[in-house]
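Pilot study result, target chain (189 residues):
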Amino acid sequence: MFQLGKTIISEDIIEKDFVCNLSACKGACCIDGEAGAPLEESEVQVLKDIYPIVKPYLRKEGIEAIEHHGTHIKTANGELETPLIDGADCAYVIFDEKGTAMCAIEEAYNQGEVDWKKPVSCHLYPIRVQEYTEFSAVNYHRWEICDDACELGKEFQVPIYKFVKEALIRKFGDDWYLELENIASNMQK
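Predicted structure:
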C-alpha cells in the first residue's frame, strides 16, 4: 500500500495486469453477484435525470425492476446501488446479439443521448474505491469471473491502472493520475 494525496492505494493496481475479455466472460460482472453496482451520492440524481432517456434502451425486465424499486436502491447498511432484476442482473443490463451483457446507460452515451457514461464504480472495475472519513482506499477486486481478463492483461502486459486510466482520471483527476504513473514508473525500476 502507498499513499497518494488523500488516497491509500493497493500496489496490486500497478503490479497486476488486466484487460476485459468480453468474448470470454460475456460481461458476467453485470449479471453475477448479489448486489447492484455501487453508486456515489452524486450519481443518484443523475440516474433519475437520465432514466427517461435511457429507458428505451432497457429490457422489459429492467424497466419493471426500476419502476418497482426506483433508479437506485439503498441497502440495509445505507449503501447506494443500482437495482437488480430478480436478485441477479443489474437492472440497466442489456445484451448484444452474441449474448454479451452491456450497459444500457453506456449504450445511450455511445449514441450521444446522454453525457454520462455509467456509474463510476462500473467504469473503474476491477478497482473498487472505499470511502473513509480521511481518505479513499483504492483496491483491486479479485473475482474469479475475471480470470480471462487477467490472462489477457498478462498477454498484452497492461497493468490495471492503465486499463482503467480514463475512469481513474474521472474519479481522481489528471494530476492524481500523472502522479500515479510516476509512482508506478519508480516501482518498476
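One observation from the pilot: Strands lie at 2-4, 7-9, 73-74, 80-81, 84-85, 89-90, 93-95, 101-103, 127-131, 136-140. A full batch analysis is planned for the follow-on phase.
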